[in-house]
Every structure is written in C-alpha cells, then in structure tokens.
Design goal:
Mean pLDDT is about 90; it is low at about 5-25. Helix content is about 5%, strand content about 40%. Strands 10, 11, 12, 14 and 15 form a five-stranded antiparallel sheet that branches. Strands 16-25-24-23-21 form a five-stranded antiparallel sheet, with no helix packed on it. It folds into three domains: about 1-120, Immunoglobulin-like, CATH 2.60.40; about 130-220, Immunoglobulin-like (Sandwich); about 225-365. It is built from three helices and 25 strands.
C-alpha cells in the first residue's frame, strides 16, 4: 500500500510541461522514466547523495542533459547541473524534486521529463529484535524480518554494522559496515576470539533510504573444537582428562597452543577427568581448584552453540553424570587466582562403555561473562 501510494503521488506531481524552464527544443523528445536512488548516510541519517537515471529519447542529436531541482514546492526550479550521460550523481543532501531535459547540438532544449520527489517517508521500520550466537572466530546474527514484511516491494536489503565493545565501560567504539543481506540472518566472520563487539542492523528501501537501527547487541567470539575423544582411565590412561586452557600472553590473552588440552588421569592441573561412577557409567570429576560446573538445563541441546547463555548460579564441584546431547557449563578461576573468571561449555555427543565424544567452547576474554550473561 505504501509503495502504491507513493507512485500515485509521483504521478500527480509529474508536470514536465509546467516545470520546464529552458528554451523549447522543437521536436526533440523529452527523456523518460526518470528515477532515483539515494546513498545511505547511516542508520536514520539523511542520505549523502542522490543518483538520477533516465531513459534517453530514441532520436539522436542529444549533446548534454540538463538537471533541474528545487528544495520546496513553492520554489522555482533551477539548473542543478549538466551531464553528457543519462545519469547524474548529486552529492550532498538531496533536493526535494528533480527533472531532466535534453539539449541538442544546436542548443535547443526538450520538454522536461517526469518530475521525481525524494520522499523520505518511504523509510522502513528498524528490525524489532536482534539476537546473537557466539562462534569460533565469528558471531551469528538473527533478527526480526518486520522491515521486509512491512513493504516487500519497497524493501532492498539489511545492512549489518559492528564496532569494538568496551566491556568495562559498556561502550561501543567506531561503527563499520560488515555487509548486506536480504535474509534476516548473517554471520560476521574473521573476528579475533575473545574480542567483544557490538552489532546493529538497519533496513534499506529500493530507493536507498535507511531505517534506524535494531536493538544493539554485544557478543564475543570464543574458541571451540568438535569431536574430542576422552577415555576412561582403565581404557586409556593418557587421554582421560581435559583442560580448557593453561596459558596466557603478557596481555592476558589466551595462547592458542594451550587450548583444549587432553592429558592423563593423574594430571592435577586438569579441569576434569573421565571416571567410572556407580554401576560403571562414565562421569566427569572436577579436578583443578577453582573449577566448578553444572548441567546446562534439564533436556538435550541441539548444538554446542546452544550454550550461548549460561546460568549465573548453581555451580558446584560435584561430579557430573553425563548423557548424550546434554550440555555442561564450567566456571574457572584464572591463573594464579588473578581474580578473573573464565567460562567454558561442553556438549557430549556420545557416551560409550570406554570413551566419550564431546564438543567444547571456551571464552578467552578474561572476566567476560558472555557464557554467563542472562
């Protein structure tokens, strides 16, 4: 309905004969089908430029095109510029109305084309919601598709923005465009693990008008690995324990080579070890001081990424009875009790008689509550 109304408004505003200000051009046909797109200036901002395009007349002899514009309907049209191609790029804040004429080699000017109105009322609503999922070196974004649903014919694309995030100050840094998509989902990749970022989404129309932003979300990529095998000590004593991380550099960042360490059952620095519980079933026993854990929810989870939001309480040092497809969350103290907690997640994919398979994730940013955030 919005798009149809706009077309009717433009049709009512077309007045090529009345708006024409140049000398008559005899039989030189006027250009037709003048239309425009604008360059987005950022979410909710005024466009930074306007691109006009039109169809040239079939008759030859056109040397240049004159572009006329005005800032208000009560004003006279004035010459905005001249071009030798059937397009015109008008930099800066757009004028309200434009039309175009053709000029031949004798200096005669045609009647004006249709008049177009730069109508910012066509701007779409911002996406109503935005959710994120932490990945290894990436963040998956999902948002409401209400902008497309508002005006499918007028919708062009979603624009995805991100910025560095200061967790302590709760501030987003300088925003940059990550990309565009027509789907209400996007994966921002090639991100450093442990570096928090802010994200926001806007919607653009086919004319280029950009909406305000969706709600702003912050998230942090974290390390992960899939299909790690751990054994009961009586089956393989050298691959019975696991530690999420063990070393950081001078800046407190996690050393990639010290992640996801599988070791012997007697390793006192391990976060947990596989052992046999009552009835011989495999379970996880916590080892290192400062490591606590709990089962994630009361039912199986679809994937490791389901542990994007962990509980804020309920951790203990008790052994974990494990089941296939269930998730488990770990809260760990820092090196030498540095006062910073780290968080990790495990999804057990297989529990056998002698070994288990699991996927794991780890948040490398010290003190970052991303796996703990409600």
């Amino acid at each position: 309905m919005r798009r149809t109304l706009w077309v009717l408004l433009l049709a009512a505003g077309c007045s090529s004969g009345d708006d024409f200000v140049g000398p008559p051009g005899g039989s030189l046909p006027a250009p037709t089908n003048l239309f425009y797109t604008v360059t987005p200036g950022g979410p909710g901002a005024v466009p930074t430029a306007t691109l006009l395009q039109w169809d040239p007349p079939s008759a030859s002899g056109v040397v240049v095109w004159n572009v006329y514009s005005r800032t208000g309907t009560s004003e006279q049209f004035g010459l905005r510029g001249t071009t030798t191609s059937n397009s015109f790029h008008d930099r800066g804040v757009p004028e309200l109305e434009y039309y175009v004429t053709a000029v031949d080699n004798a200096g005669f000017e045609s009647e004006g084309s249709n008049t177009i109105t730069i109508d910012e009322r066509l701007t779409l609503p911002p996406p109503a919601s935005l959710t994120t999922t932490s990945l290894d070196g990436a963040i998956a974004l999902f948002w409401s598709d209400n902008a497309f649903e508002e005006d499918p014919q007028g919708f062009e694309a979603y624009r995805v923005y991100s910025a560095a995030y200061d967790l302590d100050q709760d501030l987003c840094g300088d925003w940059a465009l990550e990309g565009t998509t027509v789907a209400p989902e996007f994966i921002v990749s090639a991100l450093p693990n442990g570096a928090p970022r802010c994200f926001g989404i806007s919607a653009t129309t086919i004319e280029g008008f950009e909406s305000l932003w969706s709600p702003i979300r912050d998230d942090t990529p974290r390390f992960e690995s899939r299909n790690v095998a751990l054994f009961a000590p009586d089956a393989n004593v050298t691959q019975a324990s696991f530690r999420f991380w063990r070393d950081v550099d001078a800046n407190g960042l996690v050393n990639d080579a010290e992640l996801g360490l599988v070791g012997a059952d007697a390793d006192p620095t391990a976060d947990f070890v596989v052992e046999r519980g009552g009835g011989g079933a495999l379970q996880l026993r916590l080892v290192r001081a400062g490591t606590t854990a709990q089962q994630y929810g009361t039912s199986p989870i679809a994937d490791l990424t389901s542990i994007d939001v962990a509980p804020v309480a309920g951790y203990s040092t008790a052994a974990l009875a494990i089941q296939p497809s269930f998730g488990y969350v770990f809260q760990m103290s820092g090196l030498a009790n540095d006062g910073f907690l780290r968080f990790g997640g495990v999804r057990v994919t297989h529990v056998g008689q002698t070994f288990l398979l699991m996927d794991w994730s780890f948040q490398g940013d010290r003190g970052n509550p991303q796996l703990l955030r409600q």
